[in-house]
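Fresh eyes needed here. Kindly weigh in on this sequence plus structure tokens:
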Amino acid sequence: MIESVDGTVHLARARPFLERGIPCFIDKPFACSAADAKAIIDLAARHKTFVFSSSSLRYAPEVVQYVAAPAKGKLLGCAVHCPAPLSPIPARNAGLYHYGIHGAEILYTLMGPGCRRVTCVSDAGVDVVSGHWADGRVATLRGIRAGKADYGFVGFAEKSVQSLYYNIAGSNPWPFWEMYGYYTGADWPVMRMFGARTQGAASPSPEVPVRGDNERRSPPIASTPEYGFGSAHPGVFCAVFGDGGTRSISQSADLIVLDQLGKRSDQSNPSLDSL
């Protein structure tokens, strides 16, 4: 799993895995240029392996259920809105590549492929992007940087106009298990059942506790943003756990604890050569 916040390094970091035929999940943004994206796809095809990228909002229950509902009729267009803070390092994840990509995933999940023309109006507090589809449908994405910023959309369909909002809090492990089945050929219903069991289980604390002996704790990696550690979620970073769930961990967490979380049960550190 390539989890670097900086999309400009994803090609370099995925390359050694893809060249060994190891399937890769690449977190958003998949890449920050068409050339890098094509190179990643070509590497996966050449070495006969899988590569996958997605925002979790592609699988947001509210979005998936709306798309599947037949009562609305054909979707004619949509207006999606989402937070779109800019990267603190302009050379990385420029513009909507940073967090506006979540809204773009919602939009494409609703509209599907076929966008042929894009226009954009940009100001300090907002980006408004309009897409024109080959079949005449039109959709807009509003990336918000000023004022209240939530995830949601208005769907314009043949039989209804409906507003929906997505609660980004919480964890849904199902997309992870669907990806696992896709990569491994595992039986998807079984994986979904496992996901349902873990989803219903008692959740551990959402944050790793900080050690009391602060003098022994290493400085938080978050204090050195040039490493690309963390995310735009204030004070936390997102971690994927073995049960398929995602949870937020404080950036002030003890680095010894984080090291233990990344070890195997025999306390060994996974290495590329052992995969």
Summary: DSSP finds seven helices and ten strands in the chain. The helical segments are 10-19, 34-46, 61-68, 101-111, 174-184, 188-200, 255-261. The chain has three domains: 1-54, 57-166, 171-266. The mean pLDDT is 76.
